[in-house]
Amino acid sequence: MNLKMKINLLLSLFAFTLSFVVFSGTANAAGCDPVSGVIKVGKTRTCTTPSAAYRTVNSIPLSSGLITVEIDANGGDQADGSYYGGSAESYWQRSNILIKGVADGGIRTRPLMTYKQGGTLFTSTNVGDIWDLQSSPAADSGDIGSITVDNIEFSWVLGGYNAGIHARCNSATTACYQKFIIKNCYFHHVKHGINTQDNQPVGLELEIYNTEVADTGYLNADGTSQYTASACIDSGVTHGIYVQRAKKFTLKNSFIHNSCGHLVKTRARDSVIENNRIFNGTGLEQDSAEIAMMSGSNNIEFPHGGTAAIIGNEFYKSEPEGDEAFIRFGFESFPNDGRVNSVYINNNTFVSDSKNSGGQFNSSLIKIGANYDSSNVAHAADLSITNNITNNLARIVNIWDGQNKAGKANLLNSSCSSTPTVTYTNQSTITCLNQDNTVSGALFVDIANKNYHLKSGSAGIDKSISATANLIPQNEYVHPVSSKPRVISGVSMDMGAFEYDGVVSDLQNAIIGLQVCAALNPLNIVLTGDANNDGKIGIEDVIFILQKVAGLR
C-alpha cells in the first residue's frame, strides 16, 4: 500500500469516527442511539434515563427526521419506578421530537419525573426546571418545528423557574417558529406547571391538551405540601400555567386547579381556551387552612390583553377570594406587536362561592383594567359575552382603572341582560347577550359536588342565541381531562358549558332503576331516566345516570 492510499485510509477512518461522535454525543456510552428513529428509555433498556437520552437526541441532525423517545412508566432509578433528580433533569434542544411515556406492565401508567425522594428534595446548584424544551427553527416549518411531550408526570421542584416544563426558543432576538405541544400530562407541586420564557420572539406557540395541573406553589423544603402561607412559595408569582410571551396559546380538555397564584396566566398575542375545567380550589377542600390559601388569584389572567376566545369551559371560585374576578384582562401595558385586544366569552359556566367580609357574593365574571395608552385607538378592548350560565355572581363586568376614578368600577349590573355600550377609553364596546344568572343552583344536576350539567327544567336549555361560527363549542369537557362531541339534542344549543341530553341524571332515577333491576317494583317509575330511549328502565340506564352524576359523561 503506497503512501497516498495510507493517507486516504486514515482520513476515511477519521471522518467515520468524527461522524459517530457527533451523532452519538456524550450519551453514546449509555446506549441511547435510536433504532428506526426510536430511543427506548428505562432501567431495563440500554438507555436508562431521560438525562442520558436528551444528550443523544440533541446531537442528531434535523435531516434525520422525527425522533421518538419512549420512556417506560415504571423504568426509573427509584424503588417506586420514578425518575429522580439528575436522572430526570433534561434539556431537550432539538426540534421534531416526540417524547412520550409508555406503559410497561407496572403500577404506573405514565413515568414520573420528580425532585422528591422520600422527604428529601433534590437541590443541586443547577436545578431549575425538571425539563427544559428549547429550539430555534429559523422559518415556519409546521410540525418540523415542534417538540411534543405526551403522557409524562412532573412533580416537586425547588429553585430557578421551578417549572415542570420550561418551553422557550434558544434566542430572544432572532426569528423562532417553535411549537410546543403538551398532552396527557400531569403536573403538581411545582412553582409553575408549565412556563414559557419571557422576551421571546413572536413565533413561539404553546398547545396543551388533556392535561391536569394541580397544587402549584404549595411546597415546603422538607418535601411536604401544605395549604398554608408558609408553604406557598413566591405567592402571587406562582401559577398553574404561565405563558410569558407567545404568538399563540391553546388550552383544551384540561383540568387546572389549586394554585397560590393564577390558574392560567397568558401574555400570548392570541389565546384559545376551550372545553376545560378551571377551578380555583376544587370546592372540596378538607380544612380551613386549605380553603384560605385559595386567595388572591384569578382563574385566567391576560395581563397584556390580546385576542382571547374562552369557549365551553366550566369555572369555579372557592371561598374566600382576594381577587373576585374569574377573568382579569389588561392590567399591564399592551405590547406594540400588532395584537388586537378583544375577548370572546361564549357558552361557559361560572359558579362562585366567593363572598366579601359582609357575607355577600362578590364575584365578577371579568374585570377589565385600563393600564394602557388611552391615545392609541388600537388598544381599545372589545368584549363579547354570550350564552353563559352564571351562579352566585355579583356582576358580569367590572371596569376598573386602578384607582376607581370617576366611579368607573362596576358599570354594568349583575344581569347584563341588555346590550349595553360603555363609553370608556376609546369607545370600548361591551356586548353582553343572553346571560342566565341564578343564585338557586337548581339548574345543575349536583351543584354541591361540582356537577354543572343541566337538569330538566333549566332555563338555559335550548336558549343559546347565534354566535360566530368559530366561537360555537364543538365539544364539551368530560372529567377528568377528556372531551366528547357536543350534540345538540333540542331546537338549539343549550347555554353554558354542557348540553342537556334529555335524561334526568340524578340519584333518584338511579335508585328507581336499581329497584326495577332488583324486581322491587317501585311505584314511581317514570321514563325520564330512560337513557337509551328503549322505552324501559334497565341497568344500562342506571350506569349512564351514575356516570353523569359523577361527571364522567
Quick gist of this model?
With 553 residues, this protein is mainly β.
Pick out its properties.
disordered N terminus; single chain; 11% helix; 29% strand; mainly beta; 553 residues
Characterise this structure:
With 553 residues, the chain is mainly beta. Among the domains are: 33-268; 504-553, no CATH class. 11% of the residues lie in helices and 29% in strands. It has a 12-stranded parallel beta sheet, with helices on one face. Strands 3-6-11-14-17-20-23-26-29-32-35 form an 11-stranded parallel beta sheet, with no helix packed on it. A hairpin with a 2-residue loop joins β7 and β8 (120-121). α4 runs antiparallel to α5. The longest helix is centred in the N-terminal third of the chain and has 22 residues, at 3-24. Residues 3-29, 283-287, 372-380 and 402-429 have low confidence and may be disordered.
Strand fraction equals: 25-35%
Shape descriptor reads: globular
Poorly predicted spans? 3-29, 283-287, 372-380, 402-429
**DSSP strand tally:** 39
Mean pLDDT: 75
* CA(first)-CA(last) distance: 78 Å
Content-based structural category? mainly beta
**What composes the largest sheet?**
12 strands, parallel
Percent in helix: 10-25%
User: How many DSSP H or I helices?
Assistant: 5
Q: Which strand order do you get reading across the main beta sheet?
A: 1-2-5-10-13-16-19-22-25-28-31-34
Instruction: Tell me the Rg in angstroms.
Output: 26 Å
